[in-house]
Amino acid sequence: MTESIAVTGHEATATPLVSVAGVSKRFGGVTAIKRTDITLYPGEVHALLGENGAGKSTLVNILAGIVQPDAGTLTVNGDTVTIHNPHAARALGISVVHQHPVVFPDLTVAENIMFAAAPPRTAVRSLDWRAVQANAIRAMERLQVKLDPRELVQNLSAADQQLLEIVKALSDDTALLILDEPTAALSKHEVDHLMEVIRRLKSQGVAILFVGHRLDEVFELADRVTVSRDGTTIISGPAAEFTPESVVTHLVGRTLESVFPKEEVELGDVHLEVRDFTRKGAYENVNFTVRKGEILGLAGLVGAGRTEISRGIFGLDPVDSGDVLIGGKSVRIAGPGDAMKYKIAYVPEDRTREGAILDQPISFNLSLAVLDTLSSFGLVKSKSDRELSADYIKRLGVRTSGPEQLISALSGGNQQKVVLGKWLATNPEILILDDPTKGVDVGAKSEVYKIVGRMAQAGLAIILISNELEELLSVSDRVITFYRGAQGREFTERPFDSETVLASMTGQH
Protein backbone atom coordinates (compact mmCIF):
# COMPACT_ATOMS: atom_id res chain seq x y z
CA MET A 1 0.00 0.00 0.00
CA THR A 2 1.59 3.24 -1.09
CA GLU A 3 0.75 6.88 -0.41
CA SER A 4 -0.06 7.48 -4.06
CA ILE A 5 -3.00 7.34 -6.38
CA ALA A 6 -1.64 4.66 -8.68
CA VAL A 7 -2.01 1.25 -7.08
CA THR A 8 -1.11 -2.23 -8.16
CA GLY A 9 -3.01 -5.49 -8.21
CA HIS A 10 -6.40 -5.57 -9.90
CA GLU A 11 -5.44 -3.09 -12.62
CA ALA A 12 -3.07 -5.53 -14.27
CA THR A 13 -5.75 -8.15 -14.89
CA ALA A 14 -9.03 -6.26 -15.38
CA THR A 15 -10.38 -3.37 -17.41
CA PRO A 16 -11.80 -0.50 -15.34
CA LEU A 17 -15.49 0.21 -15.70
CA VAL A 18 -15.24 3.82 -14.46
CA SER A 19 -12.15 5.97 -13.89
CA VAL A 20 -12.07 9.39 -12.24
CA ALA A 21 -8.80 11.30 -12.71
CA GLY A 22 -7.82 14.69 -11.29
CA VAL A 23 -11.41 15.85 -10.78
CA SER A 24 -11.95 19.15 -8.96
CA LYS A 25 -15.01 21.22 -8.10
CA ARG A 26 -15.60 24.60 -6.45
CA PHE A 27 -18.86 26.07 -5.17
CA GLY A 28 -18.40 29.82 -5.05
CA GLY A 29 -15.34 30.41 -2.91
CA VAL A 30 -15.38 26.92 -1.38
CA THR A 31 -13.34 24.06 -2.86
CA ALA A 32 -15.29 20.82 -2.45
CA ILE A 33 -12.81 18.65 -4.37
CA LYS A 34 -9.20 19.57 -5.05
CA ARG A 35 -7.96 16.41 -6.73
CA THR A 36 -9.93 13.20 -6.69
CA ASP A 37 -8.91 9.95 -8.35
CA ILE A 38 -10.73 6.62 -8.13
CA THR A 39 -10.98 3.55 -10.36
CA LEU A 40 -13.95 1.17 -10.22
CA TYR A 41 -14.00 -2.39 -11.57
CA PRO A 42 -16.83 -4.80 -12.48
CA GLY A 43 -17.66 -7.31 -9.75
CA GLU A 44 -15.84 -5.32 -7.07
CA VAL A 45 -17.00 -3.46 -3.94
CA HIS A 46 -14.99 -0.26 -3.61
CA ALA A 47 -15.33 1.63 -0.33
CA LEU A 48 -14.98 5.42 -0.42
CA LEU A 49 -14.11 6.78 3.02
CA GLY A 50 -13.70 10.31 4.30
CA GLU A 51 -14.89 12.72 6.94
CA ASN A 52 -17.72 15.18 6.34
CA GLY A 53 -16.29 17.78 3.97
CA ALA A 54 -13.89 15.31 2.34
CA GLY A 55 -15.75 15.59 -0.97
CA LYS A 56 -17.51 12.21 -1.02
CA SER A 57 -20.98 13.58 -1.73
CA THR A 58 -19.63 15.91 -4.42
CA LEU A 59 -17.96 12.97 -6.19
CA VAL A 60 -21.17 10.94 -5.96
CA ASN A 61 -23.15 13.84 -7.44
CA ILE A 62 -20.62 14.21 -10.26
CA LEU A 63 -20.93 10.53 -11.17
CA ALA A 64 -24.73 10.84 -10.93
CA GLY A 65 -24.78 13.80 -13.33
CA ILE A 66 -26.16 16.16 -10.70
CA VAL A 67 -22.98 18.29 -10.50
CA GLN A 68 -20.50 19.13 -13.27
CA PRO A 69 -16.76 19.07 -12.44
CA ASP A 70 -14.55 22.09 -13.09
CA ALA A 71 -11.57 19.99 -14.16
CA GLY A 72 -10.46 16.38 -14.59
CA THR A 73 -11.70 13.48 -16.68
CA LEU A 74 -14.35 10.78 -16.34
CA THR A 75 -13.93 7.57 -18.28
CA VAL A 76 -16.59 4.87 -18.72
CA ASN A 77 -15.63 1.63 -20.46
CA GLY A 78 -12.51 3.31 -21.80
CA ASP A 79 -14.32 6.31 -23.31
CA THR A 80 -13.96 9.84 -21.92
CA VAL A 81 -17.46 11.10 -21.11
CA THR A 82 -19.31 14.16 -19.86
CA ILE A 83 -22.28 13.31 -17.63
CA HIS A 84 -24.61 16.25 -18.18
CA ASN A 85 -27.54 15.03 -16.06
CA PRO A 86 -28.93 12.02 -14.15
CA HIS A 87 -30.57 10.69 -17.33
CA ALA A 88 -27.14 10.61 -19.00
CA ALA A 89 -25.71 8.80 -15.97
CA ARG A 90 -28.42 6.14 -16.20
CA ALA A 91 -27.76 5.77 -19.92
CA LEU A 92 -24.13 5.01 -19.04
CA GLY A 93 -25.26 2.38 -16.52
CA ILE A 94 -24.65 4.46 -13.38
CA SER A 95 -27.30 4.42 -10.63
CA VAL A 96 -27.24 5.99 -7.17
CA VAL A 97 -29.03 4.89 -4.01
CA HIS A 98 -28.99 7.79 -1.58
CA GLN A 99 -28.92 7.55 2.21
CA HIS A 100 -32.56 8.59 2.50
CA PRO A 101 -34.76 6.58 0.09
CA VAL A 102 -36.41 8.62 -2.66
CA VAL A 103 -39.75 6.84 -2.91
CA PHE A 104 -43.43 7.60 -3.42
CA PRO A 105 -44.96 6.47 -0.09
CA ASP A 106 -48.55 6.54 -1.34
CA LEU A 107 -47.80 4.23 -4.28
CA THR A 108 -47.22 0.49 -4.29
CA VAL A 109 -43.88 -1.29 -4.51
CA ALA A 110 -44.58 -2.20 -8.16
CA GLU A 111 -45.54 1.37 -9.04
CA ASN A 112 -42.34 2.73 -7.48
CA ILE A 113 -40.25 0.28 -9.49
CA MET A 114 -42.19 1.27 -12.62
CA PHE A 115 -40.98 4.88 -12.35
CA ALA A 116 -37.33 3.80 -12.58
CA ALA A 117 -37.78 3.41 -16.35
CA ALA A 118 -40.37 4.13 -19.01
CA PRO A 119 -43.72 2.72 -17.81
CA PRO A 120 -44.91 -0.26 -19.93
CA ARG A 121 -47.78 0.49 -22.31
CA THR A 122 -50.38 -1.63 -24.07
CA ALA A 123 -51.00 -1.54 -27.80
CA VAL A 124 -53.46 1.33 -27.29
CA ARG A 125 -50.87 3.28 -25.21
CA SER A 126 -52.61 2.79 -21.86
CA LEU A 127 -50.59 1.70 -18.85
CA ASP A 128 -49.99 -2.07 -18.87
CA TRP A 129 -50.65 -2.93 -15.22
CA ARG A 130 -49.99 -6.61 -15.76
CA ALA A 131 -46.53 -5.76 -17.10
CA VAL A 132 -45.95 -3.36 -14.18
CA GLN A 133 -46.49 -6.23 -11.74
CA ALA A 134 -44.44 -8.69 -13.80
CA ASN A 135 -41.52 -6.26 -14.17
CA ALA A 136 -41.49 -5.62 -10.42
CA ILE A 137 -41.48 -9.32 -9.58
CA ARG A 138 -38.70 -9.98 -12.12
CA ALA A 139 -36.57 -7.13 -10.74
CA MET A 140 -36.97 -8.39 -7.16
CA GLU A 141 -36.27 -12.00 -8.11
CA ARG A 142 -32.90 -10.95 -9.53
CA LEU A 143 -31.80 -9.92 -6.04
CA GLN A 144 -33.93 -12.47 -4.16
CA VAL A 145 -35.74 -9.58 -2.49
CA LYS A 146 -39.18 -10.59 -1.23
CA LEU A 147 -41.54 -7.63 -1.12
CA ASP A 148 -45.25 -7.66 -1.92
CA PRO A 149 -45.53 -5.69 -5.20
CA ARG A 150 -49.03 -4.54 -4.13
CA GLU A 151 -47.93 -3.17 -0.73
CA LEU A 152 -47.94 0.59 -0.20
CA VAL A 153 -44.38 1.80 0.31
CA GLN A 154 -45.36 3.82 3.39
CA ASN A 155 -45.99 0.49 5.15
CA LEU A 156 -42.44 -0.78 4.53
CA SER A 157 -39.65 -0.64 7.10
CA ALA A 158 -36.66 1.64 6.51
CA ALA A 159 -34.62 -1.40 5.49
CA ASP A 160 -37.20 -2.59 2.96
CA GLN A 161 -37.45 0.92 1.51
CA GLN A 162 -33.66 0.87 1.08
CA LEU A 163 -33.88 -2.50 -0.66
CA LEU A 164 -36.64 -1.12 -2.88
CA GLU A 165 -34.30 1.72 -3.89
CA ILE A 166 -31.67 -0.84 -4.92
CA VAL A 167 -34.24 -2.83 -6.90
CA LYS A 168 -35.29 0.38 -8.66
CA ALA A 169 -31.68 1.26 -9.42
CA LEU A 170 -31.09 -2.15 -10.96
CA SER A 171 -34.34 -2.38 -12.91
CA ASP A 172 -32.42 -1.50 -16.08
CA ASP A 173 -28.86 -2.22 -17.23
CA THR A 174 -26.96 -0.83 -14.26
CA ALA A 175 -23.23 -1.50 -14.37
CA LEU A 176 -22.19 0.77 -11.46
CA LEU A 177 -24.31 1.00 -8.32
CA ILE A 178 -23.38 3.81 -5.90
CA LEU A 179 -24.57 3.25 -2.32
CA ASP A 180 -24.34 6.45 -0.28
CA GLU A 181 -24.49 5.64 3.45
CA PRO A 182 -26.98 2.80 2.86
CA THR A 183 -26.85 1.37 6.40
CA ALA A 184 -27.18 4.58 8.44
CA ALA A 185 -30.77 3.93 9.56
CA LEU A 186 -30.69 0.12 9.65
CA SER A 187 -30.46 -2.40 12.49
CA LYS A 188 -27.75 -5.07 12.59
CA HIS A 189 -30.11 -7.72 11.17
CA GLU A 190 -31.19 -5.38 8.38
CA VAL A 191 -27.56 -4.52 7.61
CA ASP A 192 -26.75 -8.23 7.32
CA HIS A 193 -29.57 -8.67 4.81
CA LEU A 194 -28.39 -5.70 2.78
CA MET A 195 -24.86 -7.09 2.73
CA GLU A 196 -26.16 -10.35 1.30
CA VAL A 197 -27.81 -8.38 -1.52
CA ILE A 198 -24.57 -6.46 -2.18
CA ARG A 199 -22.57 -9.71 -2.38
CA ARG A 200 -25.15 -11.10 -4.81
CA LEU A 201 -24.76 -8.03 -7.03
CA LYS A 202 -20.99 -8.36 -6.89
CA SER A 203 -21.22 -11.98 -8.06
CA GLN A 204 -23.35 -10.78 -10.99
CA GLY A 205 -20.53 -8.46 -12.12
CA VAL A 206 -21.98 -5.15 -10.90
CA ALA A 207 -19.39 -2.58 -9.77
CA ILE A 208 -20.34 -1.11 -6.39
CA LEU A 209 -19.12 2.15 -4.87
CA PHE A 210 -19.87 1.93 -1.15
CA VAL A 211 -19.77 5.24 0.75
CA GLY A 212 -19.87 4.72 4.50
CA HIS A 213 -18.55 5.52 7.98
CA ARG A 214 -18.73 2.12 9.69
CA LEU A 215 -15.37 0.45 9.35
CA ASP A 216 -16.63 -3.00 10.38
CA GLU A 217 -18.99 -2.99 7.38
CA VAL A 218 -16.25 -1.70 5.10
CA PHE A 219 -13.86 -4.49 6.01
CA GLU A 220 -16.59 -7.10 5.70
CA LEU A 221 -17.64 -5.98 2.22
CA ALA A 222 -14.92 -4.08 0.42
CA ASP A 223 -12.36 -5.42 -2.06
CA ARG A 224 -10.73 -2.02 -2.40
CA VAL A 225 -10.57 1.14 -0.27
CA THR A 226 -10.04 4.79 -1.20
CA VAL A 227 -9.58 7.43 1.49
CA SER A 228 -10.21 11.14 0.85
CA ARG A 229 -9.26 14.03 3.09
CA ASP A 230 -9.97 17.73 2.52
CA GLY A 231 -11.15 17.05 -1.03
CA THR A 232 -8.05 15.11 -2.07
CA THR A 233 -7.57 11.39 -2.59
CA ILE A 234 -5.02 10.38 0.04
CA ILE A 235 -4.58 6.67 -0.68
CA SER A 236 -6.19 3.82 -2.55
CA GLY A 237 -5.50 0.12 -2.47
CA PRO A 238 -6.77 -3.41 -1.78
CA ALA A 239 -8.77 -3.65 1.44
CA ALA A 240 -6.47 -6.43 2.66
CA GLU A 241 -3.64 -3.89 2.89
CA PHE A 242 -5.56 -1.70 5.36
CA THR A 243 -6.52 -2.06 9.01
CA PRO A 244 -9.12 -0.04 10.94
CA GLU A 245 -6.25 1.75 12.68
CA SER A 246 -4.48 2.66 9.43
CA VAL A 247 -7.74 3.85 7.85
CA VAL A 248 -8.43 6.17 10.80
CA THR A 249 -4.90 7.56 10.57
CA HIS A 250 -5.40 8.33 6.86
CA LEU A 251 -8.86 9.79 7.51
CA VAL A 252 -7.85 12.30 10.15
CA GLY A 253 -4.06 12.32 10.03
CA ARG A 254 -3.90 11.04 13.61
CA THR A 255 -3.63 7.65 15.30
CA LEU A 256 -6.67 5.84 16.68
CA GLU A 257 -5.50 6.42 20.27
CA SER A 258 -5.52 10.18 19.74
CA VAL A 259 -8.95 10.09 18.06
CA PHE A 260 -10.65 8.52 21.09
CA PRO A 261 -8.49 9.65 24.02
CA LYS A 262 -9.44 8.54 27.51
CA GLU A 263 -9.12 11.27 30.11
CA GLU A 264 -8.12 9.97 33.51
CA VAL A 265 -10.63 11.18 36.09
CA GLU A 266 -10.69 10.58 39.85
CA LEU A 267 -14.11 9.05 40.42
CA GLY A 268 -16.37 10.32 43.17
CA ASP A 269 -19.23 8.76 45.11
CA VAL A 270 -22.08 6.81 43.53
CA HIS A 271 -24.53 9.42 42.25
CA LEU A 272 -27.03 7.37 40.21
CA GLU A 273 -28.34 3.93 41.04
CA VAL A 274 -30.87 1.85 39.12
CA ARG A 275 -32.47 -1.03 41.05
CA ASP A 276 -34.51 -3.91 39.60
CA PHE A 277 -35.57 -1.81 36.61
CA THR A 278 -38.14 -3.69 34.53
CA ARG A 279 -40.32 -2.93 31.56
CA LYS A 280 -41.97 -6.08 30.27
CA GLY A 281 -40.95 -6.93 26.74
CA ALA A 282 -38.02 -4.51 26.75
CA TYR A 283 -35.75 -5.20 29.75
CA GLU A 284 -35.91 -6.98 33.09
CA ASN A 285 -34.19 -6.74 36.51
CA VAL A 286 -31.58 -4.16 35.50
CA ASN A 287 -29.21 -3.05 38.27
CA PHE A 288 -26.24 -0.68 38.04
CA THR A 289 -24.61 2.36 39.60
CA VAL A 290 -22.76 5.35 38.13
CA ARG A 291 -20.24 7.40 40.12
CA LYS A 292 -19.47 11.08 39.73
CA GLY A 293 -16.93 11.52 36.94
CA GLU A 294 -17.54 8.01 35.62
CA ILE A 295 -18.49 7.03 32.06
CA LEU A 296 -20.51 3.81 32.21
CA GLY A 297 -20.79 2.15 28.82
CA LEU A 298 -23.86 0.06 28.01
CA ALA A 299 -22.90 -2.43 25.30
CA GLY A 300 -25.30 -4.50 23.25
CA LEU A 301 -26.69 -5.15 19.81
CA VAL A 302 -29.61 -3.15 18.43
CA GLY A 303 -32.70 -4.31 20.32
CA ALA A 304 -30.81 -5.25 23.49
CA GLY A 305 -32.88 -2.79 25.55
CA ARG A 306 -30.26 -0.09 26.19
CA THR A 307 -32.22 2.77 24.63
CA GLU A 308 -35.39 1.66 26.42
CA ILE A 309 -33.55 1.67 29.78
CA SER A 310 -32.27 5.21 29.19
CA ARG A 311 -35.73 6.41 28.18
CA GLY A 312 -37.13 4.85 31.34
CA ILE A 313 -34.59 6.65 33.54
CA PHE A 314 -35.44 9.98 31.87
CA GLY A 315 -39.19 9.38 32.23
CA LEU A 316 -39.94 9.18 28.51
CA ASP A 317 -41.39 5.65 28.79
CA PRO A 318 -43.28 4.07 31.69
CA VAL A 319 -41.49 1.50 33.88
CA ASP A 320 -43.33 -1.50 35.30
CA SER A 321 -41.15 -1.78 38.40
CA GLY A 322 -37.84 -0.70 39.87
CA ASP A 323 -36.28 2.32 41.51
CA VAL A 324 -34.00 5.20 40.60
CA LEU A 325 -31.80 6.60 43.36
CA ILE A 326 -29.92 9.89 43.09
CA GLY A 327 -27.38 10.69 45.76
CA GLY A 328 -28.64 7.66 47.70
CA LYS A 329 -32.26 8.84 47.77
CA SER A 330 -35.12 7.20 45.87
CA VAL A 331 -36.79 9.60 43.43
CA ARG A 332 -39.98 9.42 41.40
CA ILE A 333 -39.56 10.27 37.71
CA ALA A 334 -42.92 10.35 35.97
CA GLY A 335 -41.72 12.37 32.98
CA PRO A 336 -38.83 14.40 31.53
CA GLY A 337 -39.80 17.37 33.71
CA ASP A 338 -39.11 15.34 36.84
CA ALA A 339 -35.84 14.08 35.35
CA MET A 340 -34.68 17.63 34.61
CA LYS A 341 -35.64 18.66 38.15
CA TYR A 342 -33.20 16.01 39.39
CA LYS A 343 -30.56 17.37 36.97
CA ILE A 344 -30.69 14.50 34.48
CA ALA A 345 -30.04 15.29 30.82
CA TYR A 346 -30.73 12.94 27.90
CA VAL A 347 -29.24 13.18 24.41
CA PRO A 348 -31.43 10.88 22.26
CA GLU A 349 -30.31 8.49 19.54
CA ASP A 350 -32.09 10.33 16.71
CA ARG A 351 -30.93 13.95 16.89
CA THR A 352 -32.83 14.97 13.74
CA ARG A 353 -36.23 13.92 15.11
CA GLU A 354 -35.86 14.06 18.88
CA GLY A 355 -32.75 16.11 19.66
CA ALA A 356 -33.08 19.24 17.54
CA ILE A 357 -35.58 21.32 15.59
CA LEU A 358 -33.85 21.47 12.23
CA ASP A 359 -35.75 24.39 10.70
CA GLN A 360 -34.86 26.65 13.63
CA PRO A 361 -31.57 28.52 14.29
CA ILE A 362 -28.79 27.36 16.59
CA SER A 363 -29.72 29.96 19.23
CA PHE A 364 -33.30 28.65 19.40
CA ASN A 365 -32.12 25.06 19.84
CA LEU A 366 -29.52 25.92 22.48
CA SER A 367 -32.05 27.74 24.64
CA LEU A 368 -34.90 25.20 24.40
CA ALA A 369 -34.17 23.38 27.66
CA VAL A 370 -33.60 26.56 29.71
CA LEU A 371 -36.27 28.92 28.41
CA ASP A 372 -37.57 29.47 31.92
CA THR A 373 -34.22 30.93 33.03
CA LEU A 374 -34.00 33.16 29.94
CA SER A 375 -37.54 34.51 30.15
CA SER A 376 -39.22 37.33 31.98
CA PHE A 377 -43.03 37.59 32.03
CA GLY A 378 -43.22 35.01 29.24
CA LEU A 379 -40.77 36.79 26.93
CA VAL A 380 -37.27 35.54 26.16
CA LYS A 381 -34.59 38.08 27.06
CA SER A 382 -32.72 38.49 23.79
CA LYS A 383 -29.44 39.57 25.42
CA SER A 384 -29.35 36.52 27.67
CA ASP A 385 -30.26 34.30 24.71
CA ARG A 386 -27.41 35.75 22.60
CA GLU A 387 -24.91 35.38 25.44
CA LEU A 388 -25.92 31.74 26.00
CA SER A 389 -25.59 30.93 22.30
CA ALA A 390 -22.23 32.66 21.93
CA ASP A 391 -20.91 30.90 25.04
CA TYR A 392 -21.79 27.37 23.92
CA ILE A 393 -20.82 27.90 20.29
CA LYS A 394 -17.36 28.92 21.51
CA ARG A 395 -17.12 26.37 24.31
CA LEU A 396 -18.08 23.42 22.09
CA GLY A 397 -16.32 24.61 18.95
CA VAL A 398 -19.44 24.66 16.76
CA ARG A 399 -18.41 25.54 13.22
CA THR A 400 -21.05 28.03 12.10
CA SER A 401 -21.52 31.41 10.48
CA GLY A 402 -23.36 32.54 13.60
CA PRO A 403 -26.09 31.69 16.13
CA GLU A 404 -28.85 32.54 13.66
CA GLN A 405 -27.75 29.86 11.18
CA LEU A 406 -30.34 27.09 10.80
CA ILE A 407 -29.20 23.90 12.49
CA SER A 408 -30.16 21.97 9.34
CA ALA A 409 -27.28 23.73 7.54
CA LEU A 410 -24.69 22.30 9.95
CA SER A 411 -22.75 19.06 9.53
CA GLY A 412 -23.88 16.08 11.61
CA GLY A 413 -21.05 16.56 14.10
CA ASN A 414 -21.87 20.23 14.64
CA GLN A 415 -25.56 19.42 15.01
CA GLN A 416 -24.64 16.96 17.74
CA LYS A 417 -22.56 19.62 19.50
CA VAL A 418 -25.61 21.91 19.55
CA VAL A 419 -27.75 19.11 21.03
CA LEU A 420 -25.08 18.54 23.70
CA GLY A 421 -24.94 22.28 24.35
CA LYS A 422 -28.69 22.42 24.81
CA TRP A 423 -28.47 19.96 27.69
CA LEU A 424 -25.23 21.30 29.15
CA ALA A 425 -27.00 24.62 29.53
CA THR A 426 -29.22 22.96 32.16
CA ASN A 427 -26.14 22.33 34.34
CA PRO A 428 -26.88 18.58 34.66
CA GLU A 429 -25.30 16.19 37.15
CA ILE A 430 -26.28 13.05 35.23
CA LEU A 431 -25.92 12.78 31.47
CA ILE A 432 -27.35 9.97 29.32
CA LEU A 433 -25.85 9.78 25.82
CA ASP A 434 -27.58 7.45 23.36
CA ASP A 435 -25.31 6.84 20.35
CA PRO A 436 -24.00 10.44 20.41
CA THR A 437 -21.77 10.02 17.33
CA LYS A 438 -24.27 8.26 15.09
CA GLY A 439 -23.86 9.33 11.47
CA VAL A 440 -20.88 11.63 12.00
CA ASP A 441 -17.34 11.26 10.70
CA VAL A 442 -14.29 10.19 12.68
CA GLY A 443 -12.98 13.71 13.28
CA ALA A 444 -16.34 14.90 14.61
CA LYS A 445 -16.57 11.81 16.82
CA SER A 446 -13.22 12.71 18.34
CA GLU A 447 -14.43 16.23 19.10
CA VAL A 448 -17.66 14.96 20.67
CA TYR A 449 -15.81 12.53 22.93
CA LYS A 450 -13.37 15.24 24.01
CA ILE A 451 -16.41 17.23 25.15
CA VAL A 452 -17.74 14.14 26.96
CA GLY A 453 -14.35 13.72 28.63
CA ARG A 454 -14.47 17.30 29.91
CA MET A 455 -17.95 16.64 31.33
CA ALA A 456 -16.61 13.63 33.22
CA GLN A 457 -13.75 15.76 34.57
CA ALA A 458 -16.37 18.23 35.78
CA GLY A 459 -17.91 15.43 37.86
CA LEU A 460 -20.93 14.42 35.79
CA ALA A 461 -22.14 10.83 36.06
CA ILE A 462 -22.40 9.67 32.45
CA ILE A 463 -24.22 6.73 30.82
CA LEU A 464 -22.94 6.09 27.31
CA ILE A 465 -24.68 3.94 24.68
CA SER A 466 -22.97 3.37 21.36
CA ASN A 467 -23.32 0.89 18.50
CA GLU A 468 -19.63 1.47 17.75
CA LEU A 469 -17.98 -0.98 20.14
CA GLU A 470 -14.47 0.35 19.58
CA GLU A 471 -15.52 3.84 20.63
CA LEU A 472 -17.46 2.58 23.64
CA LEU A 473 -14.52 0.56 24.93
CA SER A 474 -12.09 3.41 24.31
CA VAL A 475 -13.85 6.07 26.38
CA SER A 476 -15.72 4.11 29.09
CA ASP A 477 -14.46 3.51 32.62
CA ARG A 478 -16.69 0.48 33.04
CA VAL A 479 -18.87 -1.54 30.65
CA ILE A 480 -22.05 -3.58 31.21
CA THR A 481 -23.43 -5.79 28.44
CA PHE A 482 -27.06 -6.44 27.53
CA TYR A 483 -28.60 -9.16 25.41
CA ARG A 484 -32.30 -9.19 24.48
CA GLY A 485 -33.28 -7.13 27.51
CA ALA A 486 -31.25 -9.13 29.98
CA GLN A 487 -28.25 -7.69 31.82
CA GLY A 488 -25.05 -9.58 31.10
CA ARG A 489 -21.49 -9.21 32.37
CA GLU A 490 -19.79 -6.22 33.94
CA PHE A 491 -16.26 -5.32 32.79
CA THR A 492 -14.16 -3.15 35.10
CA GLU A 493 -10.55 -3.59 33.99
CA ARG A 494 -9.24 -1.38 31.21
CA PRO A 495 -8.20 -2.00 28.50
CA PHE A 496 -11.29 -4.05 27.73
CA ASP A 497 -11.03 -7.14 25.54
CA SER A 498 -13.36 -6.47 22.59
CA GLU A 499 -13.82 -10.15 21.71
CA THR A 500 -14.91 -11.03 25.26
CA VAL A 501 -17.28 -8.05 25.41
CA LEU A 502 -18.73 -8.92 22.00
CA ALA A 503 -19.27 -12.53 23.07
CA SER A 504 -21.29 -11.33 26.07
CA MET A 505 -23.26 -8.93 23.85
CA THR A 506 -24.35 -11.89 21.72
CA GLY A 507 -25.40 -14.04 24.67
CA GLN A 508 -22.21 -16.12 24.86
CA HIS A 509 -21.34 -15.58 28.52
UniProtKB/TrEMBL annotation:
It comes from the Bacteria. InterPro entries: AAA+_ATPase (IPR003593), ABC_carbohydrate_import_ATPase (IPR050107), ABC_transporter-like_ATP-bd (IPR003439), ABC_transporter-like_CS (IPR017871), P-loop_NTPase (IPR027417). Residues 18-255, 265-509 form the ABC transporter domain. It is found in: Cell membrane. It is a peripheral membrane protein. Keywords: ATP-binding, Cell membrane, Membrane, Nucleotide-binding, Repeat, Sugar transport, Translocase, Transport. Pfam families: ABC_tran (PF00005). The keyword ATP-binding applies. The keyword NADP does not apply. One of its GO terms (cellular component) is plasma membrane. GO terms for molecular function: ATP binding; ATP hydrolysis activity. This is Putative ABC transporter ATP-binding protein.
